[in-house]
């Protein structure tokens, strides 16, 4: 295993972007250039993410990267299902019933994106187009689906989230961008079929990634964060 890691490292020069810069530079990108990420770069990025912590180091994440024809096939299937009104069948249902300050932030986030996309409050068609962009994978050349065995439950799903953030930050350091996508849990059977998954893995979410297209309006979207006093308590007695 160590030899394998060393071999990957030696083939790709690591960038010198610092961690803090990567954290601030990461943002959800919803429009990509038609340019594939070299396999060696992908190997390095995924190897870095592999260093993420996990409960008892079980490394529960299952990682399926779709590119090329397979990605195109999944995209077509998901668009057809969405347009055709096929009821989503997520392995892990989403509870998006946010209230209070969470609802406020949710609305602000939607307004930030839709205003950049030129979609008004009552523009139903525009909103549908925005939803469909998810299933077009925002034109990304690659999409990674992240899953785990359902027996692990919520506490171990945290590990998969940690893997995801490591992955997205590594991408930024290598000049790539991404969008984490809960919408990618809508049709998990398509993912299982595409990757011939037979070990009971359930799909938690996906991440589209590639090189950001700076001409796409949606990519001008920026979200804000509350100050730490909103959710962080420091106490010493
Ligand atoms: C688990 C998860 C699922 C998400 N699902 C979607 C999605 O399906 N579609 C989408 O456009 N953005 C999705 N997002 C992106 C969030 O909207 C985004 O992270 C948030 O608004 C903060 O903006 P930023 O990523 O640009 O900092 C998701 C983010 C996370 C962490």
Domain module count = 1
Q: Mean pLDDT across all residues, rounded?
A: 95
Taking pLDDT < 50 over at least 5 consecutive residues as the criterion, the unreliable ranges are none
Number of strands: 4
Q: Which outline best applies?
A: globular
Molecules bound to protein: flavin mononucleotide
Sheet with the most strands? Answer: 4 strands, antiparallel
Can you give the helix content as a percent range?
Answer: 40-55%
H/E element order = HHHEHHHEHEHE
State the end-to-end CA separation.
Answer: 46 Å
Q: What is the CATH class name?
A: Alpha Beta
CATH topology descriptor: NADH Oxidase
From the coordinates shown, what is the CATH architecture?
3-Layer(aba) Sandwich
Number of helices: 8
Q: Kindly estimate the percentage of residues that lie in beta strands according to DSSP.
A: 5-15%
Task: Present the secondary structure layout.
Layout: H1 2-11, H2 19-25, H3 39-49, E1 62-67, H4 68-83, H5 100-116, H6 124-135, E2 142-148, H7 153-173, E3 177-181, H8 188-195, E4 202-210
Antiparallel strand pairs: 1-2, 2-4, 3-4
Helix pairs in contact: 1-3, 2-7, 3-7
Bound molecules: flavin mononucleotide (FMN).
What does it look like?
The protein has 237 residues and is an alpha+beta fold. It has a single domain, classed as 3-Layer(aba) Sandwich (NADH Oxidase). The chain contains eight helices and four strands; from the N terminus they run αααβαααβαβαβ. The chain has a four-stranded antiparallel sheet, sandwiched between helices. Helix 2 packs across helix 7. It is globular. Bound molecules: flavin mononucleotide. Flavin mononucleotide binds next to strand 3.
